[in-house]
Amino acid sequence: LQVKQENAPNGSERCIDNPFNINATDIDAAIVDFLKKVKHFQDRAWKENPTKANSKRRLVYGLREVRKQLNSGTAQCIIMAKDIETADHNELFNEIDVIGQLCASQNVNMLWISSKHSLGKAVKKFPFVSAVAVCDFRGAEDLYEAAVGICEEFTACCRIADHVDQPSLFA
């Protein structure tokens, strides 16, 4: 068995023949690249005309703002951090659940990144951001498709590894 190697965008090597070789850093790198490009477009528009750029934002930060964009129907993609602390805050858990239901009902992709600190770093917000709504990703379609593709690949691999689709142990 000969194993082919391919250079991944983050410098690590990934095995082409082994689909289970996708990890969270690959997903995070794809999402961060996508967000950085969209943020660059938003910043460039802000430098040209701040008033117009404020009325047509590409990115919105925070759980409440994300929900507002979903309710208005302008969100095209939602990116959430996995490490949001919901143990003590029941309303925060409910907010995340509502966002998930709105995404499912409107067919909006919901991507997950490993930490809110890396999400905040990608959009240049200090110290962290829990959720980002992407309202317009024109110009970054290739990075969006790459991020969604690698997330779907990872989810499919997890479903296979966890035997989610297997009705019994002997099937």
TrEMBL record:
* GO MF annotation: an example: ribonucleoprotein complex binding
Q: Which InterPro entries match?
A: Ribosomal_eL30-like_sf, Ribosomal_eL8/eL30/eS12/Gad45, SECISBP2
Its GO CC terms are:
mitochondrion; ribonucleoprotein complex
Domain (Ribosomal protein eL8/eL30/eS12/Gadd45): residue spans on this chain = 45-143
Top-level taxon in the UniProt lineage: Eukaryota
Q: Extract the signal peptide range.
A: none
Pfam families annotated for this entry?
Ribosomal_L7Ae
* Protein name, UniProt field: Ribosomal_L7Ae domain-containing protein
Q: Which organism is it from?
A: Gongylonema pulchrum
Q: What lineage is this protein's organism placed in? A: Eukaryota, Metazoa, Ecdysozoa, Nematoda, Chromadorea
